[in-house]
Design goal:
6-stranded mixed beta sheet, 6 strands, Conserved Hypothetical Protein Mth637, Chain: A, alpha+beta, single chain
Length: 98
């Protein structure tokens, strides 16, 4: 299960990124984080941008509502989603990981 925390008006969770994949897709749960494969290379922030766009699409959120909190150069990142409670985000993540 993916752990979701709250901070102010945002819900936060961990993401494990696999850059340079053949296509961008949500892989599923990986050690308490959401695993996402992105086709972008891990250079000059391209993979991070692709990750945030993929998350916005999968979660039905605006791109502006999803921000990278930590892990800019790491495969494991912390992401914040504005305007969603932790319970709402947990339900969406569970649905995505089916």
């Amino acid at each position: 299960m993916i752990k979701v925390d709250s901070k102010g008006t945002a819900a936060l969770f961990d993401v494990r990124v696999a850059p340079g994949a053949s296509r961008t897709r949500i892989v599923g749960e990986y050690s308490g984080a959401l695993k996402v494969a992105v086709s972008a290379a891990p250079e000059k922030g391209k993979a991070n941008k692709a990750l945030l766009a993929a998350l916005a699409k999968a979660l039905g959120a605006k791109k502006a509502d999803i921000t990278l909190v930590s892990g800019e150069t790491s495969r494991t990142k912390r992401v914040a989603v504005e305007g969603q409670t932790s319970a709402q985000l947990e339900r969406k993540l569970a649905e995505i990981c089916k």
